[in-house]
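Fold sample X.
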Amino acid sequence: MKLTIHNSWKKILNDEFSKPYFHDIIDFVSAEYKNNTCYPEQDHIFEAFNKTTLDNVKVVIIGQDPYHGIGQANGLCFSVNDGIANPPSLKNIFKALESDLGESVDTQNGNLEKWAKQGVLLLNSVLTVRGGDAGSHQNKGWEKFTDAVIKILSEEKEHLVFLLWGGYAKKKGRKIDISKHLVLNSGHPSPLSANRGYWFGNKHFSQTNKYLIDNEIFPIKW
């Protein structure tokens, strides 16, 4: 497995990279990519850290694991590659965004790289998956790594906004210092949760920008 990750993150995560569990991740993922079709492409496994440098982080959105369909995953949670149809959860994210801001957004392009470049860390809890097999790389060590990332961000940064969508993301948020950061919780944007009234109307996008502006941080152009 290639450790293609931006230098700003390498410095602060160096201790994690040297731990036995992370070496186990490398061994497991390397074997999986050699013997199976896995997503995202190997050089995009750490794409969230490459598109959003440590200094630039303003907002953290926590997903579960990458899309497992052909050509979908690009290393950013909820995001898909250019030219790929938007999955149901992403469609609901865009619907909530338009409703919240009261304006139309580009819903045709599901590649959220434009968010990442503005400081939105689109972090999946598990960074890889076997093709066609959702959750296949869970409980292999990735969760421990991304827990460490969240803890480090909470400790080292101030005035971040953490968007925790669904029960899984909320559990990941236990390491966040709520005295220093804004944590917004809601249901997951998946159709099952959204159609039961747990997603639409949370106004997370406008609340995020209000908090950033109140703390003299440039808001996100969603």
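Fold sample Y, listed below.
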Amino acid sequence: MTNIAIFASGSGTNAEAIMNHFAASSCARVALLLSNRADAYALKRAERFGVPTAVFSREEFRDPQGRVAALLREHQIGFIVLAGFLWLVPDYLTGAYAGRIVNIHPALLPKFGGKGMYGEHVHQAVIAAGETESGITIHLVNEQYDSGDTLFQATVPVTPDDTPDTLAAKIHVLEHRHFPTVIEQTIQKLR
């Protein structure tokens, strides 16, 4: 059984969908949820699932011998999921977990990716560009924002009356439907 660590910075709806998906899985289980924000609601969601949690600082995240690395070892983490986590992953983690860190991006990469392109910023940019479709990209994580190999994409139409909020709602449906399944498929391919 593969132990998954989820990194989350916000409300944690994707984290909850993932924890729910793996609650009865024989393939993997969510063994840890880590956040860079003490007020992230994702922490409360994890507690409801009985998943251990921890909050860390930027220094603890960047230090290869620091608290984050120690927690990953302590919980025997074999796979990392970024679920609304906004910091660039340091080289020591992308190296140690090469091919075993995934992220979800709320647009069709390579468009509308990179530093600062998250959440509402992405949806505003998609609408401003006059795009007729958007969607999600689930990708492997490397040392650059949103540039790892694409594992999966799904699309939704962007209509003339869409706002960033209505587009975000469409994207969330795709995220919750596909992210847990793609994580499981990726883990199974690593076996």
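Sample Y note: The chain has a mean pLDDT of 96.
Also: DSSP finds seven helices and seven strands in the chain.
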